[in-house]
# Entry
Amino acid sequence: MDENFNIEIVSPEKKLFAEKGKSITIPSFEGEMTILVDHISIITFLRPGIININENKKKFFVEEGTVEFSKNNLTILSSNIIDLDSLSKNAISSMIEDSKKELNQENIDDKKRYIISHKIDCLSQISL
# Structure
């Protein structure tokens, strides 16, 4: 029995990742979720956080997106996803500062405030 499943991460510009994997942990609104081979079918939304493939083999920072898993095929679609290997500490610091400015806007709703706060927390942990 194959212990791997297909993982594909796609942004509007290109396919960022397409390999077989044993596990993937995603930051969904329901909480961190790990998917293994033969997981039940699922469709969910991503919140800001780290996508961790094969126990730290490959990591991505994602701001939002959708996940679909069915018949051992996982697809992640996101317009705001970055390979952690390509993120410098300066870029992370800049993203944190931009998010803090956005958080200080007066007309921000609670949902947006939650998402931005979570983004800042996640980016702060990456930069440590």
In short: The first helix runs from residue 89 to 103. The longest strand covers residues 58-70. Strands lie at 5-10, 15-21, 23-28, 31-36, 42-46, 49-53, 58-70, 73-83.
